[in-house]
Amino acid sequence: MAGNTYGQLFRITTFGESHGPAIGVIIDGCPAGLEFDPTFLQAELARRRPGQSALVTQRKEPDTAEILSGLFEGKTTGTPISIVIRNTNQKSKDYSHIATQYRPSHADYTYDAKYGHRDYRGGGRSSARETASRVAAAAFAKTLLATAGVHVQGFVERVGDITLSTWPKELSAETIESNPVRAATKEIAELMETRIREVRKAGDTIGGTVGCRVTGVPAGWGEPAFDKLHAELGKAMLSINACQGFEYGSGFAGTHMLGSEHNDAFETVEGKVRTKTNKSGGIQGGISNGMPIEFRAAFKPVATIMQDQDSIDADGNPVTVEGKGRHDPCVLPRAVPIVEAMAALVLADFMLRHRSSKV
Amino acid sequence: MAGNTYGQLFRITTFGESHGPAIGVIIDGCPAGLEFDPTFLQAELARRRPGQSALVTQRKEPDTAEILSGLFEGKTTGTPISIVIRNTNQKSKDYSHIATQYRPSHADYTYDAKYGHRDYRGGGRSSARETASRVAAAAFAKTLLATAGVHVQGFVERVGDITLSTWPKELSAETIESNPVRAATKEIAELMETRIREVRKAGDTIGGTVGCRVTGVPAGWGEPAFDKLHAELGKAMLSINACQGFEYGSGFAGTHMLGSEHNDAFETVEGKVRTKTNKSGGIQGGISNGMPIEFRAAFKPVATIMQDQDSIDADGNPVTVEGKGRHDPCVLPRAVPIVEAMAALVLADFMLRHRSSKV
Amino acid sequence: MAGNTYGQLFRITTFGESHGPAIGVIIDGCPAGLEFDPTFLQAELARRRPGQSALVTQRKEPDTAEILSGLFEGKTTGTPISIVIRNTNQKSKDYSHIATQYRPSHADYTYDAKYGHRDYRGGGRSSARETASRVAAAAFAKTLLATAGVHVQGFVERVGDITLSTWPKELSAETIESNPVRAATKEIAELMETRIREVRKAGDTIGGTVGCRVTGVPAGWGEPAFDKLHAELGKAMLSINACQGFEYGSGFAGTHMLGSEHNDAFETVEGKVRTKTNKSGGIQGGISNGMPIEFRAAFKPVATIMQDQDSIDADGNPVTVEGKGRHDPCVLPRAVPIVEAMAALVLADFMLRHRSSKV
Amino acid sequence: MAGNTYGQLFRITTFGESHGPAIGVIIDGCPAGLEFDPTFLQAELARRRPGQSALVTQRKEPDTAEILSGLFEGKTTGTPISIVIRNTNQKSKDYSHIATQYRPSHADYTYDAKYGHRDYRGGGRSSARETASRVAAAAFAKTLLATAGVHVQGFVERVGDITLSTWPKELSAETIESNPVRAATKEIAELMETRIREVRKAGDTIGGTVGCRVTGVPAGWGEPAFDKLHAELGKAMLSINACQGFEYGSGFAGTHMLGSEHNDAFETVEGKVRTKTNKSGGIQGGISNGMPIEFRAAFKPVATIMQDQDSIDADGNPVTVEGKGRHDPCVLPRAVPIVEAMAALVLADFMLRHRSSKV
Domain boundaries in chain C? Predict the structure, then answer.
């Protein structure tokens, strides 16, 4: 109920504050007998880690994961998988100035309102560091999905006003990982990179969107009423720090259309059912239809900027919040593995839930 | 797990197909001692009902709700509240033609893929008729929220390309309910109405957006990790039929901004904490900050159109799906009470969850 | 959270007070494609119904169930199954005397303490009438289990001091249903019947135990930590009105033994793993081992007696609670179908949960 | 769903195998602002630890708990509390002989049947070592309950045939903790100790019962239908390794009584409602009535004995399981803190759930 758990059958519970001893996660419900490679988990964490390039925060977080349970002789045992990641970079004094003041558009004030007592160091639980636990857990979800031929691929679609207008027919993981923005093409990556460098120089931050495509999902995954596949994807994306919006298929743009323009006609191609267009984003009535699942998550510009800002302290008095420390000019590149992680967790859960659909 | 339940402490479970004997809902967790007026429930159902105006489907659904339990001498008892709404307009023969063919962008195909056996009449469980159960349940949620001074107000913000560019400072329920579109101003309502009539004449449908503002929520509601207040709002909206997208606060537009433009500065006004702007949409770190909660849900054009369409049947053979029957040229006006209902259900749940935040 | 839901994947939510318009249940998660015979449901309700014989209460409850959803052309659709049973025997005046006084060992006082406002008529929600909803839902669970060869059989093992010392090797449903006590042998049934008639004449009530054996469960059902198969069976039984205790396998008696006497040795018989004895009651480490599952539920003597009793009213003043109305001298015979129902609901849930155990 | 989570609002998830790197637990939902003393947690673990006396196993498990999150400046923050306990005594070779053979009345066979792949070392997840996580979590639950004046006290009531016939009016924690059996009186402790020593010498094991009394619970805790207070207590106890039965109040013995003997008459004493007797064990209709809550859990003799036993291996061939290693002749003394822990977890959960009972 306190909301630190996600999923029904493939279920994760995360813990940890940015400046406590460690963060981590328990995965409960990963089926037994899954071959798992811990180096894949470590590689996924590396994709999310700060300090990968000049475009993201220069904080150093080695993010070494230790698997404490649930894995035996290289395979899952069906029992809870526990993963712990130590916090090695806890410079508490860097954050002491925020103990009594509320940073604009951060969670300092709302945590105080909710709990009365909070770990103010580096945002504590509200820090995006919590998402490392999700990425770690998702390494198992991705491995499970791979056994069903399902692949999740995210990329930075837009930075500020610089947009990739059309998604490539095939998203290349190699291309995406070989540019520091994680854009889908080399050309747009360069434009985005230039823009992020400008913003960084100004001590400012910039937002944008992450696109994601999931291939290989068979028709039939998802639940029809409240737990529609896209509703869970939406919740999962919106639960990521700084996410302000979600759309799937034709999304907001599609709502400008007429029904006759928007409907996806069914056809049979080589004995397989498909739709001629995919404005439904691979989901109809909340259930996958076998087409690629496509959605988009909107990320606001990060609230931490290198400029002084007006605010108040815990007593309600005006204060100036100073712009200092290390910051992320643009979270988009690091958001890609997190978006993928949440999508994988959603789909792994529905993969298992689907097993109870029929007698 | 089968996804027909929403909420944790204020929890509803809906049932029913459009052409079975009845639809309905159980509310479990509504606190005892709440004074409830059944005529309010009936009035809310009337707002959602088809046939209210020429702008929406002319199907007749009287939607008379019977409360079977949980209410005694005008007040809730803390035990489950069960509500049943009989289906009185079941013309099964109208729908027999879809038993073996898949309507484009409907759930016919995906239900078959998931379950193997489905009630094909009128969409069965996938029909928007299911949302009447949600509206009925939300009458209790709204009544509970009112005891805390919380009010939920939705309106049609956009129809196709016709947009209300700026939200009024105060949304007038009277204005909204007095025009058939449920627009926020009389002027935009007329433009929208004209557009819907055009589309209707063409046997087509049109999409748009519903805006919603929730006032009176104190700072502190919501949970910080997966169950962020906006993540649950997003899931709730996306679980409504035809919803393709969700955003809160500055939403997708805000992602074009710089952090220095986007941050909401705190200030103290008459001893009360508030923010100078509200790009955060009343939510920071997943928790309400005491400002109005503002969000937007995108609705695609309804898939049922009065035009013939190409499709396939259950054997994969090409068929023509005929455009006939009664249809909704634009769901937006009827979506308003449903959006409000889901928002009220989310907030009632967080109101109760908040009670466990502190010792 | 308000506790009116049982099960994870095969999940039921019950509603209704004894003297409101109706009681009923929603089953969410019953797989699609299950052939179901509504007359079986009605027959199961008849087994629980009052007025079957002179041994149980003479109240008349026709208990006609209406299935409102989830069943189409004789098979389940995978969508929620809703069942409503009207209350036809609501003589509210019979119960008016308890509006302000607390019957000994009933829930009148605790409901008032919890909720502040309660439906006092006939016990309201605390009435055993609620169990009719469980029996109705379990008709689907039993049908699902039958597809896996699983059969649940309960019987009255003891009434007061009259005990069936050894369980028959094969329990005969025919024998059990052909005597009004639902005992496992005709001989013990007669002794029990005589005892119940004596107690009834004295305006008193008597307790005892129900035994239950589940056959056909394969090895592997159940979960290892908190949701052990016997822990869920225990919760399920203890959730039945008047149940004061639960044991499985050797139970309390087994705790007098030494480990060397108690252990069940494994053996292979005709290629099938089994144990020579079954002190484990078919469950080891919380998971079924393929042997018959055997357990026992203890039912206290019903609190409603035909004798005057000392008590207090809502203001704390002493009152005499009069012994009047119709009552059950012994709930055991009617408890049998309820015990079976809860066992079937537990096992149907684990049957589905088991589907996620392995990759 | 995989059952490693207990509780709704005060919710714990445990992980870990006996011979993996560590075991542990996440507590989600502990309210913020609770002052917590980590030395109390350590003291509780010491009560459960092996090697405390000659009566229990001589294995050495230092059981040092590390709190990784959720506690800041001595108080809980409302965020997840994570506790890790390293396994320091992992002698894997001791257990290699059970990799391919099934110990009688252990979970080896059922785990294999369920998962196909298991950590066979020392029972892995099925080892009672998992309960250390529960005891650690319950230190927080007990601290929370103490703020409401609620105290949980367990004791060994019976070992084999040696029973404490009447519970003392006041249970003395000092007396209980000062004898190695954790009996309620010094006299019975000596008899029990002698019996356990005899059994130990014979390389055998012995069962018995743990009694538990909870004082200070106000009237109104618990939920009326499936989640009755005693149903959750029952599930919680039965989820402990080796627990074969549960009863509350008069329990199985009470089912031999007549209703006129069994009912608890209400009275008002010094303005406070109470009952003259307490056969209801402090719970009526599933809800606490303000009297002490009293229950009993039955523990079978431990399956690990120092004698050779017949069994089979994974291929179904007959084998002799040798009696060697270190073992617990009687788990009862160590079961006391575990019984208390589970009771505290149940009650802390209901304490929070109760907050939503009324408007």
Answer: 5-355
State whether CATH 3.60.150.10 applies to domain B5-355. yes
C-alpha angle D158-D161-D163 in degrees, rounded to nearest 5:
40
Taking an 8 Å cut-off on Cβ atoms, the answer to whether B232 and A235 are in contact is: yes
User: Is-above-0.95 flag for pTM?
Assistant: yes
Residues in chain B with CB shorter than 8 Å from the CB of A264 are: 104-105
Say how far apart CA D233 and CA A10 lie, in whole Å: 27
Angle, to 10 degrees, between the axis of helix B332-353 and the axis of helix B38-48?
A: 140
Alpha carbon A163 to chain centroid distance?
20
Residue A195, min C-alpha distance to chain D (Å) = 37
**Which residue on chain B is closest to D352 by alpha carbon?**
B356
- Please indicate if any CB of chain A lies within 8 Å of the CB of C285: no
Residue D297 to residue D280: CA distance in whole angstroms: 16
The secondary structure element, H or E, covering residue D282 is: none
Dig out the tokens for D234 from the structure.
Answer: 């029952």
pLDDT band, very low/low/confident/very high, at A50 (cuts 50, 70, 90): confident
Q: What gap in Å lies between CA A81 and CA A67, rounded to an integer? A: 7
Of C161, C244, C285, which has the smallest distance from its Cβ to D247's Cβ? C244
A13 contacts chain D (CB < 8 A): yes
Q: Is C113 exposed, middle or buried (0-12, 13-18, 19+ CB in 10 A)?
A: buried
Per DSSP, the residues of D94-125 read GGGGGSSB--TTSSHHHHHHHHS----GGGGG
Question: CB of A122 within 8 Å of any CB in chain D?
Answer: no
Helix (H, G, I), strand (E, B) or coil at D260: helix
C131-170: b or e for each residue (b if 16 or more CB lie within 10 Å)? bbbbbbbbbbbbbbbeebebbbbbbbbbbbebebeeeeee
Look at B31 and D359 and tell me if their CB atoms are within 8 Å.
Answer: yes
Chain A residue at shortest CA distance from D112: A77
Could you tell me the CA-to-CA distances from B2 to B241, B300, C42, C351 in Å, in that order? 17, 25, 26, 15
Chain C CA closest to residue B86: C68
Q: Is B15 on the interface with C (CB under 8 A)?
A: yes
CA angle D315, D106, D196 (to 5 degrees): 140
Residue ranges of chain B with per-residue pLDDT less than 50: none
Please tell me the distance from the alpha carbon of residue C281 to that of residue C295, in angstroms, as a whole number: 7
Residue C94: pLDDT band (50, 70, 90) is low
Q: Shortest CA distance to D278 belongs to which of D266, D264, D288? A: D264
Is residue C195 helix, strand or coil?
helix
H or E element, residue D234: helix D229-238
Give yes or no for C69 touching A (CB within 8 A).
no
Q: What residues have CB less than 8 Å from A127, skipping those under 6 apart? A: A17, A18, A241
Q: What angle do CA B288, B290, B292 make, to 5 degrees?
A: 90
Interface contact C33, partner A, CB < 8 A? yes
Measured distance CA(C156)–CA(D6) in Å, rounded: 32
Chain segment C25-54, per-residue pLDDT in tens: 999 999 999 999 999 999 999 999 877 777
User: From CA B316, how far away is CA A335, in angstroms rounded?
Assistant: 40
Q: What are the residues facing B293 on neighbouring strands? A: B214
Residue A78 Cα distances to A31, D128, D313, angstroms: 5, 18, 22
Q: Is the per-residue pLDDT at D310 higher than 80? A: yes
Kindly state the tokens that stand for A69.
């349970």
C207 CB near a chain D CB, below 8 Å? yes
Which of D146, D185, D139, D142 lies closest to D162 in space, CA to CA? D185
Residue A5: list chain B partners with CB under 8 A: 226
Q: Are A143 and A149 in contact (CB under 8 A)?
A: no
Coil, helix or strand at residue B261: helix
